[in-house]
Amino acid sequence: MPAYAAAQTGPGPRGDVLAIHHLIEQYTKAVDTVDLNLLSEIWSHSPEVSFIYPLGEEHGFDAIEQHVFQNVMGGMFSKRDLQTRGMTIYVNGDTGWSEFHWTFYATMREGGSAVTTHGVETQAYRRESGTWRLVHVHHSEDRQPTP
Length: 147
Known about the structure:
By secondary structure, the chain is an alpha+beta fold. It has 4 helices and 6 strands, in the order αααββαββββ. The chain has helices at 3-7, 14-33, 36-42, 61-76; strands at residues 50-53, 56-59, 77-92, 95-108, 114-128, 131-141. Strand 1 and strand 2 (56-59) form a beta hairpin. The two termini are 24 Å apart.
C-alpha cells in the first residue's frame, strides 16, 4: 500500500480516495510544469468551477487556466515546486473534498529571486461520467509552523 494511502484519515471508499489523491498529484504536476493539457484533463469544464486565492477569484475553466496558470504560475515564475502535506480526503457519493497544507518553492521570472510560500488549501471534486474532476480550489496563507 502506498504511504500516502495509509495516512488518509477521511471517510469514503478506498478506490475513490485513491483516485482523488491521484488527481491532487496531477494538479501538483500541472502547477509545477504549467501543463495546460494536464490542467484541462483534471478540471471540470462546467461553468461553475472556481478558484479563490490571495490574488482574487476566478470563475470558469478558461479564467482559471489563463489567470492562475498562464499569468501567475507561468508568467511570474520560471521554476515551481509545490509540495503537499497533511492531506485528508473525504468522499460522499459523487462529491469529494480534500484539505491539505502546502509549501511552494519558486524562482521569480523577473530577477531570479527565490520565493517560498506556505498555504492551506481545500479542493472540491465531482464525479463526472465516472471520472473525478476538480471543481473548486480555495487557498490561503498557512499560519501554522512548517514541521
